[in-house]
Please model this.
Amino acid sequence: MKKASIISIGNEVLSGQTVDTNKSYLCRKLFSIGIPVVSSYTVGDQIDFIVRVMNLAGSDADVVLLTGGLGPTDDDLTRQAFARFLGTELQLNDRLLQKIQDFFTSRDLQMPQSNKIQAYIPEGAGPLANNLGTAPGIMAQMAGKLLAALPGVPSEMKRMFEESVFPELKRLSTGQAVVVRKLKCFGTGESNIAELLGPNMQRDRNPLINCTVEYGVITLHIIATADDKDKARRMAQQDETLLTQILGELVYGTGEQTLAQVVGQKLAQQRKTIAVAESCTGGTLAKLLTDVPGASRYFTRGWVTYDNTAKTTELGVPDDLIQAYGAVSPQVADAMAKGAREKASADIAIAITGIAGPTGGSIEKPVGLVYISLTSDNQCESRRFIFSHGRDFIRFRAAQTALNILRLKL
Amino acid sequence: MKKASIISIGNEVLSGQTVDTNKSYLCRKLFSIGIPVVSSYTVGDQIDFIVRVMNLAGSDADVVLLTGGLGPTDDDLTRQAFARFLGTELQLNDRLLQKIQDFFTSRDLQMPQSNKIQAYIPEGAGPLANNLGTAPGIMAQMAGKLLAALPGVPSEMKRMFEESVFPELKRLSTGQAVVVRKLKCFGTGESNIAELLGPNMQRDRNPLINCTVEYGVITLHIIATADDKDKARRMAQQDETLLTQILGELVYGTGEQTLAQVVGQKLAQQRKTIAVAESCTGGTLAKLLTDVPGASRYFTRGWVTYDNTAKTTELGVPDDLIQAYGAVSPQVADAMAKGAREKASADIAIAITGIAGPTGGSIEKPVGLVYISLTSDNQCESRRFIFSHGRDFIRFRAAQTALNILRLKL
Model:
């Protein structure tokens, strides 16, 4: 079985200014094709150190991936270290230089002189295209090992890895096939999921079920290992069915699906339109809905009615309703939703009002109190939630919960 | 100057299931007392590998910190590796055993047999108290080096480090003080910043200037090293002034400040209110503004007018204007801004209309084309931008650019 080793380069990582998320991303991707990462190294921007860990990584593994240090400034030394490791010199690549110049020209900019260094590649290595920035990557084969240097900027690194390195690695990968499927859940906690799944989560089980949580979204990783890909795929598929049966409507999707994507698909299929009225979430729900390409098929408009006057003038919420119950109340949530639905002539409207904090809470209405109201046809239903863990989490969780209510309604 | 090296241990880190946040935490803490981390290693739960990287780390540095692998299960092997590195055996420590038993007794639980292993410590090493869990740490001195093994659970690791290891390291630290200041910039690229700063970015300079980029925000890290804290602080302060002079209005803030925070402060100070009208950004700008606690002082309302009808009915954009110039035009951007300002009775309004993609572009109006219009008093000014790198980046960059225009206006 082929093995991999990963090297992260950059003073900003060692000084703790940057959390290294590239590493876990690459580990996961390699794991998914049966190339386990057996070691990883982090070093600063020093040629000697980089060359030394390249030697160590090369002795650990068949595949060595480097990230960082390909920028245009003097502290970017991965290029030079790669050349020294190969025992060659850097060479100017005219095609790369042209591409970098084009990058700036297409933006009506002059290429700064410092960017020229990015057109240099070690002799004996090839460039990897960067379709998001100016720093090309480097790939080389030496003594049966595959080495690739990728940018440190996560978006550029991922795109380059997926376009140019991953296909190469898939060809290398032999033998044990690993298939990873993901189930996405929303609406309960991690320990409750673990209880519902019981012995299915045992550590020596194959497929292995791992669980991660981010902003209330629980991802179950089903990791099936078998002699061939088809068998592993079948095992993962069976588990996906089993777990979905056990968890029911807690499962909202698979793979990398977001709640907004799933909701968007349902709205588009049912040819329904949605309008949103937000107070405490301040545009977060509209943003999540419009993160999805093609959202204009079902989303036409939204209001951020942050103060009370806005709720009255924009959505027709009666001022005496706000006076009687307060802006954070089921009555006002309902009135916001109804107003939004009517003004937008939408099939469905959803409204959120709450107290995101850190101030503004009271004993009856604490920070984290949120009312979410959904209206469609002649129905209008509001629900009360108490979220915690600070302003950002409260706002994001409230918007996600609104999407989940919408999902279950659809 | 003393140096440090960090070792992370655990299969879950190498399989990418866990992002290693311990490392950046320890790096930051060590950095703050003038003990730079010069290398770091990540290995799986295998004794041989752990011992090997302990040797490497020991040759790199004076302080070696390990995290992970101290749990009670069979895959936790840091204890055994530590003993082998010291050339000694594990010994049962009766006081530790008692403490672990007490931990369970106090929770009305029976101690599982597997936890007994946590009472073993290598001969020649001492235990570090764990006040949050059962896994004690290990600390030893060998050949002038300080070695400490900490749990992998972040909360336990941090508490143990702060209580037992950090005070020890402060004594070791030979007085070299390091002060880090951050300058946040927006409105240009990394290479242009490097060109403007010129020799100030040289690698051997003190303070050292490092540069990182995220979503268009460039962070300059000013790292000053001196014999005492006051001197380092003065040096960093001087550089902050110098760099701000050179970069002028490209610098929008310091530390962890966001554009929305800086804009919010200015609005609050000048007692001005803002309204926003968004098309392609779909709520992103409103969300960024309301991410800031207390945004209600200056932000009262926003519109997400995603389709053309919404622009007309909500903001009074004349339908024939949209027919004549298209929704993505400076004319419509201006009309959106004016409509929003008037309806919200705000001092300032900002409008964004553009094509976020991936579809909907044409030769004259490509994906990424965005008009941003700002209106205040009787002025109204729109600017044209072409952003790239996909839907998410275009939307986020457009909203950030709107904030930057607002900042410069204020």
Notes: Residues 125 and 140 of chain B are 5 Å apart (CA to CA). Chain B touches chain A through 90 residues (CB under 8 Å). Residues 4-172 of chain B form a domain with the Molybdenum Cofactor Biosythetic Enzyme; Chain A fold (CATH 3.40.980.10). The two ends of chain B are 46 Å apart (CA to CA).
